[in-house]
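ingest -> validate -> predict -> emit
validate: passed (alphabet ok, no gaps, 419 aa)
predict: started
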Amino acid sequence: MLVLQAARKPQQSQGRIGLAIAGGGPIGGMYELGALRALDEAIEGFDPAHLEVYVGVSSGSFLAAGLANGLSTAELYRIFITGDSHEVRFRPEIFLRPALLEYARRAANLPGVAWQWWVDLLGNPSGAQMGELFRRMGGLVPTGLFDNDGIERFLKDVFTRHGRSNDFRELEHRLFVVAVDLDSGEAIRFGSEGWDDVPISRAIQASAALPGLYPPVAIRDRHFVDGALRRTMHASVVLDHGIDLMIGINPLVPFNASRAGQRPHGVDKLSEAGLPVVLSQTFRTLLQSRMQVGLAKYAQQYPAIDQMVLEPDDDDGEMFFTNIFSYSSRLRLCENAFRRTLDDLRRRRETLGPILLRHGLRLRDEVLDAPRSVADGLQRPPRRTEATARLHKALDRIDRHLQPPVRPRATKRSARAMV
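emit:
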């Protein structure tokens, strides 16, 4: 589903584009990568790895940081989907390693808690309540099931090789990663002034620390959790940076069972599928409602900025019922997102074309009108050493500075749409 908000007071565009990528767990990341691949293929002049500013939240921060570091959508696809990247070996199991140290740390407090309760019971037998015991025992429950330190180590390795950087300040493009301070509820933008010295890998670990699944991440004696707790995309971060076009990707929308072609998983009502499905639908409904309110507000606050947001269709059972931590489905989900995004662009071509043209972009009819797969034209690049990777990156930077992008001429289709 493509949500378009054309600028109410359009101004002369400088072609500055900002990208906001929301969270959604590993499956959400697969959708976002498929959607980005579709945009990359279908829009002439659009290079997701060379935009003005990026903001990533939770799983979206993985992709935002990769793009800001110059990784193409093709290379990200090879890393996270096919696993045949020459440079990076991605192991999905790093997301699901038990947080053994957290378990041990909490268990070590058990004797002290039990002893203190026993002392209180002997001192005041009538005042000892079972509720007090449960309250104290709650402090023994681990704050996360899985260990996220391995995620940070993986990202640190990726961002410190082949000319990339794990330092916000060294990036060619602005990058922000959002997490929430657990003790204050404040949203922190890593990459902003005062927080740009935090390693990118550490910031992503904090932004993706979904409470209950991963322990809070300690940074400067503060503890951070998933950035989506405050806002879904934090699109205002890119809108505040003088851009002309904002592109957002949100993978979590509520499922509309009444519109689905067939009843999912053999149930007539979502309530019949059990508590996990009910909670998932509730969570998605809250997130989308909050985002819709935000987009309506942004249209008033930023009248000169065109905005487009990509989301799954609300009848897409593939996105809703696939296990959020299922990696075996990543190729199928990415392909599904790629094709549905192309369908959205094709359906909205007459409206979208003139908006993109204003920013020096053009829809490729030859891509939209032909059957296409997410892996079409995807060739494995030659192996590169550290030195050749840095050389290629430097030459690419020089080439972009010497050859500024040329604004494409309006096609007949676009010209008719603008009349």
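Residues 275-301 form the longest helix (27 residues).
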